[in-house]
Amino acid sequence: MDNKEKDIGERLEAATTLLERTLHWLEERQGALTGEVERISATVEQSRREAELAEKLAAAERQLAEVRAAAPTALNPLRRTLPATTSEMLAKHGIGDGPVDIRSLDAALSGLSLEQRIAVKTQLLRAGAVA
């Protein structure tokens, strides 16, 4: 019986050693598991932030679409007139009230500087006088 007790004691000692190793291993893994949980929670928070940003982007796109829809009416007023100086300059070169041909416009503006030509053409485009 002494042998059986000794054998059982050795087996209990071996089991205790294995349990201690397992406990130590589990304690080490607990730190790693905590880090994984933090990463998961950070991912959830990040996806919430992405959803908020997506909503803000959609709102900004709606506003931009509204502004673009309103832009043609703002750029094309109901009354289209040219400044008097532009009308006088075009009249000197024989260009009348109707739509202006680009070739005749370029010939009429050849004496002006580049900036002045751009300004006159811009005014004519706004007034809708360029064909």
Give the SSE layout:
Layout: H1 2-75, H2 84-92, H3 102-108, H4 114-127
Task: Look at the structure and give the mean pLDDT.
Answer: 77
Q: Which regions contain 5 or more consecutive residues with pLDDT less than 50?
A: none
Measured between the Cα atoms of the first and last residue, the distance is 118 Å
| Percent helix range | over 70%
Tell me, briefly, the overall form: rod-shaped
Number of strands: 0
Main pleated-sheet profile: none
What radius of gyration results from the CA coordinates? 42 Å
What is the assembly state of the chains in this entry?
A: single chain
Q: Helix and strand string, N-terminal first?
A: HHHH
Number of helices: 4
% residues in beta strands: under 5%
The structure class reads: mainly alpha
Question: What keywords describe this structure?
Answer:
131 residues; mainly alpha; 4 helices; 79% helix
Provide a quick synopsis of the model.
This protein is mainly alpha-helical and 131 residues long. Helices cover 79% and strands 0% of the residues.
Describe the overall structure.
Helix content is 79%, strand content 0%. It is mostly helical and 131 residues long.
